[in-house]
Design goal:
The complex is a heterodimer of chains A (about 425) and B (about 425). With about 425 residues, chain A is of the alpha+beta class. Chain A is about 40% helix and about 20% strand. Chain B contains 14 helices and 13 strands. Classes of the chains: A alpha+beta (about 425), B alpha+beta (about 425). Chains A and B meet through helix 2, strand 9, helix 4, helix 10 and helix 12 of A and helix 2, strand 5, helix 4, helix 9 and helix 11 of B.
Chain lengths: ~425, ~425
Amino acid sequence: MEKTVFDQMNETVYHEQLDNGLNVYILPKQGFNKTYVTFTTNYGSIDNDFVPNGETEFIHVPDGIAHFLEHKMFEKEDGDVFQKFGSQGASANAFTSFTRTAYLFSATSNIKENTETLIDFVQDPYFTEQTVEKEKGIIGQEIRMYDDNPDWRVYFGLIENLYKDHPVKIDIAGTVESIADITKDHLYTCYNTFYHPVNMTLFIVGPVDPDEMMSFVKDNQSKKSFPDPTPVERRFPEESEKAAVEHNEIRMSVNTPKCEVGFKMPASSRTGKEKLREELAAGLLLEMLFGKTAKFYEKAYNAGLIDDTFGFDYTGERGFSFALVGGDSNDPNELAGRIQTQLLEAKEGGHLTEEAFERARKKKIGSTLRAFNSPEFIANQFTRYQFNGLNLFDTVPVLEEMTLQDVSAFANEMIQAERFSSCFVLPKETA
Amino acid sequence: METTREQTFAKPGYNIHTIETEKYKTNTVIVKMRAPLEKETVTMRALLPHVLQSGTENAPSAAAFRTRLDELYGALFFSDSTKKGNEHVLTFTMEAANEKYLHGEDSLFDQALTLLADVLFHPYVKEGVFSDKTVQQEKRNMEQRIRSIYDDKTRYASLKLVEEMYGDDPYALPAGGLLNEVPSIDAASLYAYYKKALAEDIIDIFVIGDVKSSEVVEKIQAHLPFENRTAVSVKTEPGAGPKEVREIREEQDINQGKLNIGCRTPITYSDPQFVAMQVANGVFGAFSHSKLFVNVREKESLAYYAASRLDSHKGFVTMLAGIDQKNYEKTVRIMKEQLDEMKNGRISDLEMTQTKALLKNQLQESADTARGMVEVLYHNIASGTNRPIHQWLEEIDAVTKEQAAAAAATITMDTVYFLAGKEEA
């Protein structure tokens, strides 16, 4: 077991890759009551075209299957795993993103039993035609709930505009129609391909003894056998650097229009600290251009173009990255125009001052420290960083090294008018 | 486990609560101001925090104020407006990094506290009142905020239920303010109300982090000079329901119907039966093993979410689910049946064990965040109850099935609100 001390953050991480390939990380947090454990596979909604484990030909699976699989993992022959976690005082959950599926619990007692339950239920699939059919009604309601959510619709509407073929444009839960095609055999195929320990990470954070927990996990894993790992072959369509669609409008039952503007970036070729630097540069750039202390914000706010819902977000994952800016607005056209102008000016170095850079950097350092109060943040982000070949604990040191030049270079390289798109949600015309 | 020391210092007019702990990388100050919920003041109160953070004497614009926060390593400042029974609570939170994790920084805590004091005591004032421009701008934002509740159908449905069910009871008032009250507010009336709230509200101040209580109390008194006052809490009554259950149906062009059923119980937070009620709500609908989740979602595939919620300061229980319109009768029937199961004591040992384990877990987890600890303390403060966490945990363990059933038996259905979706094709 290797031990890494991060002095500045006053945290220590223990790591071991087990014989079966599973990566286990333990971060002891004394003084906390809660232990939070995530068990994550490097597999998400975009992984829909791959060679199944043990086969040679590519197959294409229905949209929404990674999320469907996540739901179905909880049901076993002898009942629902929530029941077991409940009896052991643990609150369990799971989520599926573009590139990851995570199973998790938080508990203040029975930590070993709960950890065992977590590992065992994820490593023991049980799917039948009957339980798969039953789930379609439940997920159908989940999809409808999101269909009525204008923030989700404008977010996904914009991603759909940005990408022509890349599966990031597919809603994570799929559609009522696409999930209708899912069978138990599909689920087993995906499971066998992506849930091998070599493709997964277990992260434990809480008031635990690292030696004790590590040997507990090792014991559990040594009793199970897995096929020899084969590297997962996935395939993604070639994607143009240009946005596929420039603009789109969605009509919904809302009072206030929603406006999102975004741009896509070519998949990053950088790795390790260089990639982290790129991701941090993206965040700093958006903060400098659109944060609450930026001139842009003040002007747009005073002009009544934006309100507290205005914000921005950068997503950089395996094979794609994009940035989004927007919020509620009574004049989405004017707002979208201003956002695009602001970005294009930044490409030429506009708005990128030393002063704004310093402020954004300090803010990011402070928010990173604050985030380290949260076991959820540590486990989920550490795992995301690890899958992307980065180290979460490098964040503050790298921020301290960065200069305005990093941000200007990023802006110059990434911002291109042809990569822009916008999406509005507008009130339905009333008769 | 390291020690967490919690102390309360009673000052004339307000209380300071300190929690000394080293487990966070930030230090937090929270100020809570409480007053009766009233139609005449609810909108001004909801607007006030937005105007206060739009500029101070030292940082006369929102941008200048936000710049100060960013310079303090992104100190986090935010406010919210909530209800505790029939009282209206404004919360101001300031959270700053502990400088010991930064290279060569002076005390961020002192600077953050000064900034918080500026917001509360030294707002930007023009000709003796708030700036008219700021007030007009924040009024416009508030109107947009209230109007956009309609866009979030889940939230809209729960607010609508409360409004319909409580009618003239102050609890019907939304903590975020009333749209039709916004136009009548101006810079002078809001400033006058601000002075009044500052002088008369019930004030509680919480400091959580790597600090020394004795030093902190002095600093707080110096920075936040609240005057003496004799404020008294208003007593919240659950109120009587209608003779027959009311059904309200509203239609919108949406995909999923939102079913929210409102119920009353006389058991509130300060009641000796409260913990039994909490357990009853847990068995009934708070968790993934609860009757509503199992019967509405898992057995019948009718919904993605199916749950019950308890507002213990009012004695308000909601059952809720997102369903297809065609399944309305069936879902209402199952929910009623499950409530009857509770009342008749058809509760298994397993359901009791699971519920108690998860309630205790929730309570212990809340003590892991500064805000969570404050919320637990404030339940007691706002309801004049003394139920410290360790005692609360013991009380959960002691609840019997009979007690949970007896608590459930006090729940009466009041209003069934359904926001209906489109007809299924």
